[in-house]
Amino acid sequence: MVNQAASDTPDATPGQPACADIPGQIVFVLQGGGALGAYQAGVYEALHEAKVEPDWVIGTSIGAINGAIIAGNPPHQRIERLRQFWEQVAYQGSATAGLLPVLDEWLRNLSIMTRGIPAFFAPQLGALLGLHNNGGKGAAAFYTTEPLRQTLLSLIDFDYLNGKTTRLTVGAVAVRSGRMRYFTNRDTPLDVDHVMASAAFPPGFPAVRLENEAWWDGGIYSNTPLEAVLDDHPRRDSVIFAVQLWPAHGREPDSILQVMSRQRDIQYSSRAESHLERQKQIHRLRHVIRELEQYIPEGQRDAPEVRELLGWGCGTTMQVIELDAPRLSGDDLHKDIDFSSSGIERRRAAGYDDTVRMLKQAPWREPPDPMEGIAVYRSDPEANPAAD
């Protein structure tokens, strides 16, 4: 299958390839990470300009929000809707007019934590009564996310989304059982509560009820939801753009603050590399089973028990293109709440530039090993001039 954007998509930027030769379905996998998600908006902008539109978007947390905006609008409206979201959640103003950046940053973080972001979340007054205050299940959080509900309803066309032009999958974890579940518009209509549930990160945000069950942000279980596509059935050849916001690799820290920041990077990168290694082993076994079929005598292949066993084999290939957000100058423990206009723009620009470089390399054109089910191509975040 060759995927191209709709005819109303603008031509590719001069000098940038129009990537109409991508084989198989095109999948975007979007990690969670709060304000870091502006990087994903830049990635999509570059892909859109290269006429690369997804068949399927999978996301958790801010990745679910970005993903729902993408899948919930026609291609020609997606960039504008993404820009509107990030403009609405941007923190405006500077207490010192930029003369004292450290003080500005401290006051901005203090304001966000105490006053919230008008289009995103607001303080839950019951939380002021103490951590043991029993305000009810819907109020067991520091903030209310009702502002986000209204923002999403204004930016996402759920009728279009459920028309299944683009498949959307969002991950959430059941509060009582602790089990991860992926909700997809392929199987059931999605509404704003599904997106809200995937972004309900505790204890900041309250759980969201779906099907008489309380759900939290899927990122607390798996912040890189690659398994949703790698375990999908039926399997299809896929080129997967995995946009990761938390670096799995980093420098050895020198201070306690750097230790705390590095610990969060490792925690929220969600062992993406180990997941991929496990999936590579599974897919190789599937390819081995497929190859074994030719060594079974023809008269035995159609036996029901043999056909059942051979059904575990497949010949699909998954090409995973990792786009890893770089560590930017000034990043610290609170980088995921850096909703400053400048921070959002820097991350958007970094995502755009990284993706343009990856598109020029076009790694999907390399023929994959026929015995390997998964090929992984990683960007170099240090190649971004904005990286620290």
Keywords:
388 residues; alpha/beta; 9-stranded mixed sheet; 13 helices; 11 strands; disordered N terminus
Provide a short characterization of the protein structure:
The chain is an alpha/beta fold.
**How would a crystallographer describe the biggest sheet?**
9 strands, mixed
Radius of gyration: 22 Å
Which structural class do the helices and strands define? alpha/beta
User: Rough shape?
Assistant: globular
DSSP E strands, number: 11
Order of helices and strands: EHEHHHEEHHEEHEEHEHHHHEHE
Low-confidence stretches: 1-18
What does this protein look like?
- This protein is of the alpha/beta class and 388 residues long.
- Helices cover 37% and strands 14% of the residues.
- The protein has 13 helices and eleven strands.
- The strands form two sheets. Strands 1, 2, 5, 6, 7, 8, 9, 10 and 11 form a nine-stranded mixed β-sheet that branches. It has a two-stranded antiparallel sheet with strand order 3-4.
- α1 runs antiparallel to α3 and α2 runs antiparallel to α3.
- It is globular.
- It starts with 24 loop residues before the first strand and ends in a 10-residue tail after the last strand.
- The N terminus is likely disordered.
List the helices and strands and how they pair.
Elements: E1 25-30, H1 38-49, E2 56-59, H2 62-71, H3 75-89, H4 101-115, E3 122-123, E4 143-144, H5 146-155, H6 158-161, E5 167-174, E6 180-184, H7 192-198, E7 208-210, E8 213-217, H8 227-230, E9 238-244, H9 256-268, H10 272-292, H11 298-301, H12 304-310, E10 318-324, H13 341-361, E11 374-378
Parallel strand pairs: 1-2, 1-9, 2-5, 9-10, 10-11
Antiparallel strand pairs: 3-4, 5-6, 5-8, 7-8
